[in-house]
Amino acid sequence: MPVFVVFLLFSIEPAKEATYLSVLIIGGIFVPIGLKTLRGVKRGTYTNLDVSDQLQRQRWFVGTTFLLFAVTVIIWLTNQGWVLRLAVTCALMLLLTAQVVNIRVKASMHLAFHTFLGVLILYFNKNAGLGFLLFAPLLAWSRLHLKRHVKKEIFAGVALGAAFGMVFWLLS
Q1: 92 with 72: CB under 8 angstroms?
Q2: pLDDT digit string, tens, across residues 140-149
Q3: Domains: count for the chain
Q4: pLDDT tens digits for 4-58?
Q5: What domain range includes position 155?
């Protein structure tokens, strides 16, 4: 996901702006989430790096949502381009919705964000988007094989990602 963010930003923004936004998004979201997750596994707060336990995941969502919300606010307050504001807002809405859904079904966040990103990539480049989405079945298989999810959780993740990807398309 961070690679896609950097690629997208350098594709649609001037280099200086893309660099600033890349540092903001990666440093403000991905690095803290990664460190929090690693620390959580080390301390025993999380069973594994996937945060597969439904109750553990609910706690993980709180910090993750806060970080994404903070970066989304900064992106809006600095009046970034509409496509970027919309994409980040849709990602935040996806995360919030997944948190609510998680009360009943532990939707695969891997597949939710993979599908969401695939639909975003389609917006910019159809061949690249289709190529990216071709990896979804392998990702689904890995989630099932590792016993991190069952089929309904895989479908829930894909549905969430596709829904918010379509919201992005409709509003962009």
Answers
A1: yes
A2: 999 999 998 9
A3: 1
A4: 788 878 888 899 999 999 999 999 999 999 999 999 999 998 888 888 777 888 8
A5: 2-171
